[in-house]
Design goal:
With 333 residues, this protein is α/β, with parallel strands linked by helices. The protein has 2 domains: 24-145 and 273-302, 3-Layer(aba) Sandwich (Rossmann fold); 149-271 and 305-332, Response regulator (Rossmann fold, 3-Layer(aba) Sandwich), CATH 3.40.50.2300. The protein is built from 12 helices and 13 strands. It has a 6-stranded parallel β-sheet with strand order 2-1-3-4-5-11, with helices on both faces. Strands 7-6-8-9 form a 4-stranded parallel β-sheet, sandwiched between helices.
Amino acid sequence: MRLKTGSCIFLAFFHCIVGTCEAKAEESVKKILILHSYHAEYPWVEGINKGIERGLKGRQGLEVQTHYMDTKRNTSQDFKAQAGREAREKIATWLPDVVIACDDNAQLFVTRHYVGKKPYFVFCGVNADPAVYGFPASNVTGIIERPQHKASIELLKQIYPHITRIAFISDDDPTSIGTLSFLQLDLPAGIQVLGYNIIGDFELWKKRVKEYNREADALCIYMYHTLKKEGEAVSMPPGEVMEWTIANCDIPIVGMFDFAIEDGMLCGVVESAQEHGFEAAGMALSLLDGKDIKTLPIKRANTGVSMLNLKTAKKLKLHIPEETLARFERVIE
């Protein structure tokens, strides 16, 4: 009888120890939710994911999940509002310790609802002034995105020195709208801007491109991913937009993202999505390690990569000296 009682006590003690260990193990696992404004196949998103993966590599005790809002292809306010509700429901049910919230729609429809509340948020790829969303906050910090337009135009002048008149054109995504005011600042000397255009309709886009092809020396395109054909709710494939644009443009086109140069624009000093992801991951880990968020101020991504599409240069019959070509960090052939 005593043996049985002792066994019961021992078993109860054993289960208690195991239960405590399991509870502690569960507590030691930290959760990071990667919240994307857009869809998984979008090149900018792919770059951010690669940067986050590199930033988290080797870190033990993490559980990571990714949620996509898909608001680049589906741009109606109703869709975005529903995507925001679904993302907030994901946060409420999964209870992450840190959310890495990427691009402006994630801030507008999700992060701003948590200002001053749990969990921590680290944003990246944000074009608007963070103050618009109520940042910084006691639980929010991150990395802002700013266009490298001055450096991109100066880069173009190295291979196309006689340009004096340029025009800016972009789609009507919040990314473009948030960037517009910054595109109007800090232009190279001697450059006249013929217009800044935010466009959602593809027919109007085609009209503007043809006008500037006659009137400008070069065209600067920021984004081209939310254009729609008349009567359609879903955005056109960006490759289709750029294929038409390049085919109908005899002047150089400057881009500000790596995928834009890959899609056929001539050149640009481009934003690095991987840098945004890598820096955001580092901030998230610092918060998980107990670092005070006040020591992690909002900062600007500062790595620009000079890119050239050599095939486009040949189409435009531009001669690029070898010493100039050697200055580009990445060349698409």
